[in-house]
Hints:
The structure is a single chain. The protein is mainly alpha-helical. The chain has one domain (8-109). The chain has five helices and two strands. A two-stranded antiparallel sheet has the order 1-2. Helix 1 packs parallel to helix 3. The longest helix has 22 residues, at 67-88.
Amino acid sequence: MTANQTSYKKGNQVQLGNFKYKTPEERTRVFKELIEHLEQGFDVASFPPLSAKAIKDYCSKFPEFPLDIVDQAKRTGRKVWETKGYVSLENKDFREKTYQFIMMNKYNMSINQKSDVKIDDLRDVKNMSDEELRQAQEGR
């Protein structure tokens, strides 16, 4: 946290320094916007009102920014992207390489993950059993 973004106790009051959203109502509003943003599959770095670092600072300082809800929203957003890939498997115009590129960059995924289950083509996923899919997701 930079010197101009400090939060400290003075008596019974929290001093907010240069935090942009000073009231619980303002923080609750922007937190709801953040959660909607993340649940749609967008990254925390592309949230216009606050930087990724500021979001981290708010999560550590204010109860209106619970980190577990942020993490859950990120997982929901990831599911949006995974669902787009899964649903698109039926589409003959689906650009597998583009989807792989997006997922590798957005979620640090690797095509060469170690696994007993080999996926040569994304279309192979629809023919896998639940156990094979679980193993592939876990990278075994």
